[in-house]
Amino acid sequence: MLRRVLTISIIAVSLTGSLFAAEHEVGQKEKKFTTESLKVKVGDVVSFPNYDSFFHNIYSLSSEKIFDLGSYPQGQTKKVKFDKAGKILVECAIHPGMKMTIEVQP
């Protein structure tokens, strides 16, 4: 029995990257992010739901995490896993005023 529990724990850690990984949400509403800054831990996931009636294209060119989620409409959510510590500037390619930072802590 103990071996089975240990095996399940090891699988959970390898799938998430961390036993304590969490998921956070940063919405897009009225051409703004729902928060200007967010602190997460390495291994955490941030979801970016679009609550606006128009498209957004969320991206980052920060060396700690480069990503581009592409354009997506209201009602869709895209996710990013942060696997390296650092400060990431997140922007919208369609709406240049949309900016926020995510601080990824070890």
From TrEMBL:
InterPro entries: BlueCu_1, Cupredoxin, ET_Amicyanin, MauL. The keyword S-adenosyl-L-methionine does not apply. It holds the Pfam family Copper-bind. PANTHER family: BLL1555 PROTEIN. One of its GO terms (molecular function) is electron transfer activity. This is Methylamine utilization protein. It comes from the Bacteria. Keywords: Copper, Metal-binding, Signal. Residues 25-104 form the Blue (type 1) copper domain. The lineage of its organism: Bacteria, Pseudomonadati, Spirochaetota, Spirochaetia, Leptospirales. CDD domains: MauL (cd04221). Residues 1-21 form the signal peptide.
